[in-house]
Amino acid sequence: MDGLTTALAAILPSIGVGLIFWFAIRALVNADRTERQALARMDAEERLAAQREAASTNEESKRDRLTSE
Length: 69
Prior knowledge:
The protein is an all-alpha fold. 97% of the residues lie in helices and 0% in strands. It has one domain (21-69).
């Protein structure tokens, strides 16, 4: 049993460090994914607002041309 205890004592620290590393990398990847989703959502909202503004500006210029003629 002494050999098994020695083997476990030798391998457990490596397993522990590996698990800590895995959890840290997993947290980083999840944070990056969440940030990319938030940025994509913000970009889509900005594009939509710009399209709406362009459409309203286009309608105003059409009205101005019609009233000036």
